[in-house]
Specification:
There is one protein chain. Strand 3, helix 5 and strand 4 form a beta-alpha-beta unit. It is globular, with a radius of gyration of 16 Å. The chain has 170 residues and is an alpha/beta fold. It has a single domain, classed as Aconitase, domain 4 (Alpha-Beta Barrel), CATH 3.20.19. The chain has a seven-stranded mixed beta sheet with strand order 4-3-2-1-5-6-7.
Amino acid sequence: MSLVISGRAWVFGDNVNTDAMAPGLYFKSSMDEMARHCLETLDPAFAGSVQAGDVVVGGLNFGMGSAREQAAMALQHLGVGAVLARSFGRIFYRNALNFGIPALLLPADMEIQAGDRLRIDAATGEISNQSRGDDAQVASLPPHLLRLVAAGGLMPYLKNRLAEEAGHGK
């Protein structure tokens, strides 16, 4: 997985709950079905229109609420390239990284509108709003989390590590 993401911005407000990303009504359904309803209460067009590499932009406390990993899974399933927010719900933040989605803090002075073209380098922390000619530098992910995201998430990362260790043990 590339640590440079380019795509359209999907902008949401403050206090976006994980229940909106992974509605409980669909917990016994497939991930395909759950993902089709991701964020529909906030933007009914989102799941059907989001494209691989697009960026979800939140306000304060993005991913608050219950500790459902399905919220990050639904975003991953839809191909979301990254999540930017002013702040994150703690468990959602970790779940996003565990599913290979870079999550970076959005500077308070950077304005992003729905549909803006963004370029994000998770390794350097560079965010560029190509639609507005606005650039920002934020804290990049630490090296160990960059490796996890680059592998596609926690499970692929661990499988790679185990395979490497097994190869060295021969």
